[in-house]
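Entry 14: structure prediction run for ROK family transcriptional regulator. Input pasted below.
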Amino acid sequence: MLDTASPWTPLSATSRRVALEVLLHGPLARTELARRLDLSTPSLTRITKPLLDAGVLHEVREPATSGGGRPLQPLDVDPGLQQFAGIKLTGFRAYGVLTNLRADILATCSHEITALDPGSVVDVLAQVVAELSAEHTPAAVGVGLGGAIRDFTLVRRAPFLHWHDVDLGLLLAERTGRPVAVANDLDALMEAEHWFGDGRDVHSFAALTIGAGVGGGLVIHDRLVTGPDSGIGLLGHFPIDPLGPSCPEGHRGCADALLSTKAIHTQAAMVLGRAVTYDEVLDLAAGGDPLADQIVARSAYAFGTLIAAVANIAQPERILLTGEGIRLAHVARKRLQAGIDQARQPEASPLDLRILDDDPTLWARGAAAVAIQRTVLASLPRH
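Run finished. Output tokens:
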């Protein structure tokens, strides 16, 4: 569903591309914008005039140069032109954010999930949208969740919700009257970082997440890599240690068996002889407990091995690390680096690693970014 009142709707494909370039990289001087898009100055002037008239673009007045030259008037997008709602849906809570057009968070809220049937979940999501809409009606709503999503609306599989073939986008759009885009939560995070975050200045990057499971995403040539098996957790079963423990699927020494939060605190409980949480295991390791340190060091080394494998195969310019279990990378950074080093050629370039500390709003912002993308790119041909 598209919002016919959106200022993007009447734009031609060329005008939309100009506005998109400014949205992602502005403010931009007209000469720089023309160079980026390989347009002549007269063509750019003709294209930008209706964008200025419609308020999609505006001029940013800069002070005169020290030589007394005429001040430049770069073009920029007004980030307050539209607002967007993004929701991270978990099995126990829905975390919502309201953002502007550049995915800057303006407001947050959350509501508890008490029942997992589609009707009850949609009721909660509608409450989140209503709360976020108290002062500004969002142009569109994005929802991110762990699972396999098709056509930005159909939840083909979401194990944590026990859902199969639920058209969440349609149900929520009917309840809210707003366009809705549903996406895998890691895909949504990737798109947010690609347009507005740590992937904004590179053409390729990967993201690895550790938490309840192990996930991975990849952007190559400025496009998110997706396929028929996206969202089913394939990276979690990547083999790392043939002598390691088995995951619930029976894969010995796979990423899930070594890196998931459940695997780590379960192994620690067996070794320590008492129940411990994931954070308690990390606290013990950081405090010098030899048994906890051994478990954490092994997991961090395995994480480094996985990072190196992704780097060796995909050769991304940057790798982002996040997820609710990412504290592991802070507590055992040296062991993580050792895992990377043993699996990389000495001549290989140093890896550009960036750790994004986990927060539900990070993922909700990703969902909002997908809604922004679907709104802005609505009439662009997809190649």
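Notes: The chain is about 40% helix and 20% strand. Will compare against the previous run tomorrow.
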